[in-house]
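pls ignore typos typing on phone
magnesium ion + seq
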Amino acid sequence: MKEILKVENLTTHFFTDKGVVRAVDGNSFSIYEGKTLGVVGESGCGKSITAMSILNLIEKPGQIVDGSVKFLGEELVGTTDKRIREIRGNEISMIFQEPMTSLNPVFKVGDQIGEALILHRNMSKKEAKNVGIEMLQLVGIPRAEKVIDDYPHQLSGGMRQRVMIAMSLACNPKLLIADEPTTALDVTIQAQILSLMNRLKTETDTAIMMITHDLGVVAQMADHVLVMYSGKIVESAPVNELYGNPKHPYTIGLLKSIPRLDETREELNTIEGTVPSPFELPQGCYFEPRCDKAMEICKHKHPETYKINENHTASCYLYAEEGEE
Ligand code: SF4
Ligand code: MG
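k done
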């Protein structure tokens, strides 16, 4: 498997008046060609900041304070603005939650898809328009020759998100980062877009980083999953193993809280307690105040990452005897 992105000890802090927020707290992971890495966790756990750190989009008071992000072997942390702009929107593309904010309302769809092609691929306007039409067809937009001349407001939310995907795929990126790409859409459109992304992954071999709070989306999309809690990856596992044999108490709690179609239950099983304030993180394991398996040591020292097997790790003392990563 070809490693497209290798992230090591990525650490992003926000220096605020109230104190330092360790938004991304020393995380390591890789993303491979033709595979989807799912990143799950509740809002505020550092998923989006991880994506923005990879893309060098962190602005003050935030800063990457440690670690490395290698894209096809090239270090992106500390690289020039010029170089990162060449990579962004070309070799690495992104899709965000709200397509209306990411599409420019005053430009036609075709001009927005074509912009990157003209800029990065030296295409003429006409060539770019033709590729644009092809991309719109690829993402299942009917009457693409007409839609290419439409303005974003003339399209439905689902169509706009398809346009965003077409735009992000126009340059044939090696890596696509999708941050809650379907959260704002209704269930039917969501299902269509996810199956479209799955199809494109197999057809184009693009590596995908899929950020979501929705475990159902992850089950459908991901090959491997990272579970984040308070800025840290607490579990990392292949998708089947994560669902079939979850190890970290937080993951177990998350999985219990998804309603299952084959079960009738009076109410959802949610994890008791709330995510700790980023200004007052527990001294030991960040999950300790909510953990029903907590031991004395959990209160005092943050656990290392322990190996469950070759592809599965958990940051939890319950697995300490299985050996450090
Ligand atoms: Fe629970 Fe301790 Fe494991 Fe943290 S390290 S998840 S508190 S058992
Ligand atoms: Mg987010």
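The longest helix spans residues 187-204. The pocket of magnesium ion (ligand 2) is lined by residues 43, 47-48, 179 (CB under 6 Å). more later
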